[in-house]
Structures are given as C-alpha cells and as structure tokens.
Design brief:
This protein is of the alpha+beta class. 39% of the residues lie in helices and 20% in strands. The strands form five sheets. The protein has a seven-stranded antiparallel beta sheet with strand order 1-6-7-8-13-10-11. It has a four-stranded antiparallel beta sheet with strand order 19-3-2-20, with no helix packed on it. A four-stranded mixed beta sheet has the order 4-5-9-12, with no helix packed on it. Helix 10 packs parallel to helix 12 and helix 14 packs parallel to helix 16.
C-alpha cells in the first residue's frame, strides 16, 4: 500500500511535491542541462536538474508521477542526449587538466550532474520499467569505470586539491557517484559497479578528501550517503566506520547547527544554510539508523526534520537558502529568507521527504516485527498489516505540554503481530493504553505491543516539558556558553524573539527574523557579510 504522511510533516511533504508541478518546470527548462536549448542556471552541471526531477517523479510512484506534463518527454529524451562514452553534457576530454579554475568550469560540474543522474535512471527504471533507462544507467556506470584512471590517479592529487572544495571542486563532484554505482550494482548484479564504488571510497579516505572544513556540505553528505550504501551491502567492511567518522567530525566539530541542519559551506561563520544539505542530513541519519539501530541518529533526524527543514522551506513549497544570524557566541538563529533554489533544493528536498515515507514503518529483519521509529503522522503497511499513527491533541493541557497520539493496527491475516514504538529522548512519562485500559510500559526506550486481534487501537501520551540546551546539543549550561541557551519542547526549538529588552517565546515565523537563542538580556544578532 502507498505510505501517506500526515500532520505537519505530511503538509511539508505535500507542499514540496506540489512545487514540482509549477509552471517553471516545463520540459525545455528541465532538460536544458542536457541539450542546452536555453540559457539557465547551472546548465554546465549536466544531469543535475534533469536527474533530480526524474528521481522525484520515480519516487512519487508510477500513477502520481504520470500526471506531470514533462515526464513523458523526459523519459523519452534523457537517454537520447547521452554521449557515446556514456556521460551527459558537452564533449569533454576527461584525461585533460581539470578546468575548475576557469571562468565557466565544465569537467567537474559534468561529473556532479552525472552523479545525480545515475541513481535517477535506476530509480526511474524500477518505477516505470523502460529498459532504455537501465541501458542508459549501465552506459553511465561504465563511463565512471573508464575515467577512473584519470579521476582516481595518485599522481594527480595536487591537481585535484587545487580545484578547491566548493561546487566545481573535485572532492564535491567526483565521489557522490558512489550512490548511483551502488544502486546500479543492485539493479544489475554486476560487481564491477560495487568494486568501483569501493575504490572511490578508499581513495577519498586515503588522500584526505573527507577532511573538514569543506565548502560544499551537500557534496560531502552525498559521499557519506554512498559510504552507507556500501555498508548496507558489506556489513563486515570498513565503510560504516568511515561514515561514522564523517558524522562525528561534523557534530563534534560544531558544523551542525542548533536546529539540526548544516550551512551551505561546512565553514564556521558562513551566512547561509542550504536546503539540499538539510535533505542530505535527514536521509544520512535515517540510513545510519537503519544500519545501526542507534537512537542518536533518529534524534538528529527529528531535529532537522522538525526545525531546519521547516524554516528552510519557502512559501512556494520549495527549499533553498535562509540567512544565518550570529552573535558573539556563534550561531544565534535565522534571519530573512534569501532565495528558493529551483535549480537543486526544490528537487532534493522533495526527494528526501519522499524517501522519509520508507522509514516511518520498518520491518525488523527476521523477527516478524514492525517498528515505528518516529512519532509522526502516517498510514503505512505491508502484506501482513496496516498501521496508522496520528497525533490527536493535548492530553490534559498541563504545564508539561502533554501530547496524545492514536495508534491503529489492522491485521490482514490470522497471524499475530508485534509492534515496537520508539520513545524519543524528549518524551517523559510515556504511556500506551489499549482499548481495554491495559497499560504497556516502556523498556529501554521502546514500547512493545503484541497485537492479537484483527484490529486494535491504542492511545499513547507523553509529557513534553520545556528544557534547555547549549548550542551543541548539551543539556548543561556553563559560563562558557555566555548564559545563552536554547529552549526546546518536544522535537521543536522554541523561538526567542527580541522585542526591545524583552524576549518573547513563540513559534518560528517565516516572515520575520527568528532567533533561536534565548538570553536574559537583549543581545544583538546579525547576519555576516558574504
């Protein structure tokens, strides 16, 4: 059955998906990075917009995506624009010098766009079944194998480094292809693609292309996602530890903002966030959890989903850039919306929220158990059961902010089912009661329910007190924090907006400057120049 998201997150996801049906996104605009029929943003990043659009349509599902006016054209014409050597974009000698320092670089942007096109072709083949898409994906995968001698040459390390780490840099543009190569390996069973992804990962680590700070957090996180796909296939390999080191360097290095997201550049003091990076950070943390079952990744996924993505989404429904505010102690919050990025973030944000659907109800391997890892509204199921989870308001209106949810389970066969419900770190006194009034207690952060009847309903409730954090997720405040701290309730950061000398606590408002740092005295928070 189709998974449906509801509540605040469902509304965010619907707005992001509806954005892609905007009049701007016609077939000529979407394919311009392949056939160059017009001048638009980043046409030299061939496969970037076209690939992201194709992936979103595939993730939307065959029936829903079929209604987009440009889809049939794109399905037909994307393979037609592929070069003989398998890449998309202008003719290019990939054995020649890297051109990232030229006024309009081409080589690295082509690799970036092709890295976004490769997983899109595989996903579109899985959804729409057109063999031409899989053949195109195999040609592109073989292209990456062919250029490995030039793009992973130990004798060219200094040249790669000289390209920098921003959008047209080698570290940004080459390694994200690991994701598409792994998806192509699973689609075809051909180990050559798996081996090439492994070689990329080892080269990235050996020569320090995983180092922070880095000027393109989106590209960095795409590479981390590729490592996690390698770990999914090879649980005994070193890929998971590589990815965990990247995660810990981001968090421990202070690159993750109090709202859970990242700046466009993983550089302290930069003035903008980026929707693509927030989308990547969400999908990276969800995949980390699926691999490890460590709750810290779910805690981070919730933080970015409920806060950073919420304030990064613009009124039209897409994602982009919001100004970041600083004070003497670092990041202080967010200012005015800067720009919707219809060339990347609108697509990548929508894709991440579509992928979220696959994580709201998980099957615990070999245990006949369904797991609900996030307390958000959804309807989902499999061939054994249908599950609905919905918030239904407060439970008593106490100062602790007690919240209430309804869980409904319908079994499709005679066999009983186990449902496990995670208790997040922000919930206190979590209670689950069945229709007969029997209470089930949480143990080790989970509530385990044994569903025996054909249908069952449960009421869940929890206290959600307001608590404080420092700017790096710590629950203790010290003098070094300058008496500045964050207020949180449930998964949400609360806004402390300065009005004169007083601070007013309220929800974030996209039309105003929202400062997420509370202080007992008025403090000036400003954007930096960039």
């Amino acid at each position: 059955m189709e998974t449906k998201l509801g509540g605040r997150i469902g509304a965010m996801q619907a707005r992001s998906q509806n954005r892609l049906w905007g009049s701007e996104f016609d077939e000529k605009f979407l394919i311009a990075d392949l056939d160059f029929n017009q001048e638009r943003w980043f046409t030299n990043y061939s496969g970037d917009i076209s690939g992201r659009f194709l992936e979103c349509m595939a993730l939307s599902g065959k029936e829903t995506a079929g209604s987009h006016k440009a889809l049939a054209y794109m399905l037909e014409n994307i393979p037609e624009n592929q070069r003989e050597d398998g890449h998309f974009g202008i003719e290019m000698d990939f054995g020649g010098p890297i051109d990232s320092l030229e006024e309009v670089p081409r080589m690295m942007p082509i690799l970036w766009g092709n890295a976004r096109m490769l997983p899109a072709l595989v996903e579109a083949w899985l959804t729409f079944g057109k063999e031409a898409l899989l053949e195109s994906a195999k040609k592109l995968g073989d292209f990456y194998l062919a250029v490995a001698k030039d793009m992973a040459d130990p004798n060219r390390i200094e040249e790669y480094r000289a390209s920098g780490t921003y959008a047209p840099g080698y570290a940004t543009c080459y390694f994200p292809a690991m994701e598409g190569l792994m998806r192509l390996y699973w689609a075809t069973g051909q180990e050559k693609y798996f081996r090439e992804a492994q070689r990329m990962a080892l080269f990235r680590r050996e020569y320090g292309f995983d180092s922070l700070p880095i000027e393109h957090s989106h590209g960095f996180l795409c590479s981390v996602y590729g490592l996690l796909l390698l770990a999914w296939e090879d649980r005994e390999g070193e890929w998971l530890s590589m990815a965990q080191r990247d995660w810990e360097n981001l968090v421990d290095g202070g690159y993750v903002l109090p709202s859970g997201g990242l700046l466009e550049k993983a550089v302290h003091g930069y003035a903008l966030d980026e929707g693509c990076s927030q989308a990547d950070w969400l999908r990276v943390n969800l995949l980390f959890y699926c691999l490890t079952e460590q709750s810290r990744y779910l805690d981070m996924a919730e933080r970015v989903l409920y806060n950073q993505m919420r304030i990064n989404q613009c009124e039209a429904g897409g994602f982009g850039h919001r100004r970041v505010l600083y004070d003497a102690h670092g990041v202080a919050g967010y200012g005015k919306y800067h720009a919707e990025a219809v060339w990347c973030c609108a697509f990548h944000g929508a894709a991440a929220l579509l992928n979220l659907k696959s994580c709201v109800l998980l099957e615990e391997g070999g245990r006949g158990t369904l797991q609900i890892p996030l307390l958000l509204d959804f309807i989902a199921g499999n061939d054994r059961a249908e599950v609905a989870f919905q918030e239904c308001g407060s439970a008593g209106g106490t100062a602790a902010g007690r919240r209430k949810w309804k869980l409904s389970v319908s079994l499709k066969g005679e066999e009983a089912m186990t449902i496990r419900l995670r208790v997040p770190d922000w919930a206190r006194d979590f209670q689950v009661c069945g229709t007969g009034g029997e209470a089930v207690d949480a143990k080790d952060g989970w509530v385990t329910l044994q569903v025996q009847d054909k249908t069952a309903e449960y009421t869940c409730s929890a206290n959600c007190p307001v608590y404080v954090e420092n700017r790096y997720f710590g629950r203790s405040i010290s003098a070094e924090d300058g008496y500045s701290f964050l207020l949180r309730q449930g998964p949400d950061l609360l806004t402390a907006r300065q009005k004169g000398a007083a601070a007013v606590i309220e929800g974030p408002d996209d039309g105003m400057e929202a400062v997420y740092v509370f202080r007992p005295e008025a403090v000036k928070a400003e954007p930096v120049d960039f």
